[in-house]
Amino acid sequence: MNKIKLNNNYEMPIIGLGTWRSKPEDAYKAVLVALEKGYRHIDTAAVYGNEEMIGKAIFDSQVKREDLFITTKVWNTDQGYENTLKAFSESIKKLGVDYVDLYLIHWFKGYENSLSTYKALEDLYRQGKVKAIGVCNYNVHHLQHLLDNVEIKPMVNQVETHVTLQNHFLHDFCKANNIQLEAYAPLMSRKIDELLTNETLNEIANKYNKTVPQIAIRWLIERGIVVIPKSVTPERIESNFDVFDFTLSKEDMDKIRKINTGRKLFPEMDNIDF
């Protein structure tokens, strides 16, 4: 398993299993399959409603806790210092663990709220209850505000990133500030058919004798971006992980870069109402 070092030197597997919209029973089965196939990084969130079954799958897998990297997130309605501490306690109880490897603020909900929520993450980190902290769905101006006002730099920023939303400017900002970019919806979520039928990606996939999703995942990995493809289908879970036996040429990396349209599939970070 390839890993990257976060800015606190904690290691994070570069690929993990996403579980958004995975029903509890489906998430349980998916996590068991993923761990059997070699995954050691599982991504969930309080709002997904599947933490308890993911925790059960982790326990039933008998994989050692220290070999796993578990991410969860504080939801928007639980933000604020005290609420975040309470939400975290509920999450680790459901997951059946003593700590999580990464705890994230799920969405930006205002500058003041962001700081009070992040202060709770800092305190959890100092207490050793989380090994790394960060945010989701934060753009450059959100990150800069944190950097200007917090004591512990965010280690991760998880955002929608895929071949048609490549986030080069945001990625460059994160790299300059030693914040790891992590891609959710790397296979374009509900628009996956656009990915699967893309002519350029199909040509490249044929060249390497790989699938289009494997090319899309490998392209992100070669940019140094952590990837969390979501699936509940055993064959796809295994296929999404089978991306470490080839590398893309610079020419092919450049061809994929030209697919970028900048179109988001998920809400704009400054304009959410949930």
Number of strands: 10
- Bulk shape: globular
Tell me the CATH topology: TIM Barrel
Gap between N and C termini, in Å?
Answer: 36 Å
Strand content: 5-15%
- Which architecture does the CATH hierarchy give at level 2? Alpha-Beta Barrel
Query: What is the C-level CATH assignment?
Result: Alpha Beta
Number of domain modules: 1
Architecture overview:
With 274 residues, this protein is of the alpha/beta class. The protein has a single domain (11-257), classed as NADP-dependent oxidoreductase domain (TIM Barrel), CATH 3.20.20. Helices cover 43% and strands 14% of the residues. The strands form 2 sheets. It has an 8-stranded parallel β-sheet with strand order 3-4-5-6-7-8-9-10. Strand 7, helix 5 and strand 8 form a beta-alpha-beta unit.
Features of this protein?
11 helices; two-stranded antiparallel ribbon; 274 residues; TIM Barrel; alpha/beta; eight-stranded parallel sheet
